[in-house]
Amino acid sequence: xxxxxxxxxxxSLPLSILRxxxxxxxxPLGEPKLGLAQEAFSELIISGGKQQFLALLAPVxxxxxxxxxxxxxxxxxxxxxxxxxxxxxxxxxxxxxIVISDRSPAKVMKILRQTLSLGLSHTVVSWIDVMxxxxxxxxxxxxxxxxxxxxxxxxxxxxxx
Length: 161
Prior knowledge:
Blueprint: E1 10-11, H1 36-40, E2 41-45, H2 50-64, E3 72-76, H3 84-89, E4 97-100, H4 105-118, E5 121-126, E6 128-130, H5 133-145, E7 149-154, E8 159-160
Parallel strand pairs: 1-4, 2-7, 3-4, 3-5, 5-7, 6-8
C-alpha cells in the first residue's frame, strides 16, 4: 500500500481509504431525477490489440485524472496492462487517482457498488464485460445519486461478472 500523498498512483488500497473525510464531499439527498441514471453511466467498447486499447484509453484516463480537484478518479480492477508505470507515463494525476486491483468477480462487484455509493469519486472506471442489466441500472442510479460518473470499459480481456 502506498501513501496517498506520494507522487505515485495508489495501488491496491482498501476501500476504507475512500471513507477518509479529507475530501469533505457531502452527498445529495433524495432520489436522482429521471434520466440522470442514464447520464451517469457510459460504456466504451474497444476492439483490437493491446496497443490500440492503450492508445485509445490513454487520453481518456489522463483527462479524467485532472477533473474535479475535490474528488477521486477510481479505477476498479483494471487489466494488468494498466500498470502504475503506464499510468504515470500518460500523465495521470497520481494525487487524485486510486487504483483498486482486486480482480475477483465477486469482490469487483462489491467494490464497485461501495465506491459508487460513497460518492467520493467524480468518476469510477470499471472493466466488466458481462453484467446483468438490472445490476447495471442499479449501479447507474447509485452513481447519479452521488453525482458520480461511471465508465465501464469492454475489451477482450475484461471481467465477466
